Amino acid sequence: MSILVVGSVALDSVRTPFGTAKEALGGSATYFSVAASFFADVRVVAVVGEDFPEEHLSFLKSRSIDLEGLVRVPGRTFRWTGEYGFDLNDAKTLETQLNVFAAFQPEIPDAYRESDLVFLANIDPDLQREVLGQVRSPKLVAADTMNYWINGKPEALRETLKSVDILLINDAETRQLADEPNLVRAAQKVLGWGPTSLAIKRGEYGALMVRKGRWFAAPALPLDSVFDPTGAGDCFAGGFIGYLANTMNFEEANIRKAIVMGSVMASFNVEAFSLDRLRRLTYPEIEARYKVFKRLAHFEDL
Amino acid sequence: MSILVVGSVALDSVRTPFGTAKEALGGSATYFSVAASFFADVRVVAVVGEDFPEEHLSFLKSRSIDLEGLVRVPGRTFRWTGEYGFDLNDAKTLETQLNVFAAFQPEIPDAYRESDLVFLANIDPDLQREVLGQVRSPKLVAADTMNYWINGKPEALRETLKSVDILLINDAETRQLADEPNLVRAAQKVLGWGPTSLAIKRGEYGALMVRKGRWFAAPALPLDSVFDPTGAGDCFAGGFIGYLANTMNFEEANIRKAIVMGSVMASFNVEAFSLDRLRRLTYPEIEARYKVFKRLAHFEDL
Question: Which CATH number fits domain B2-297: 3.20.20.70, 3.40.1190.20, 3.40.50.300, 3.40.50.10900?
Answer without folding.
Answer: 3.40.1190.20
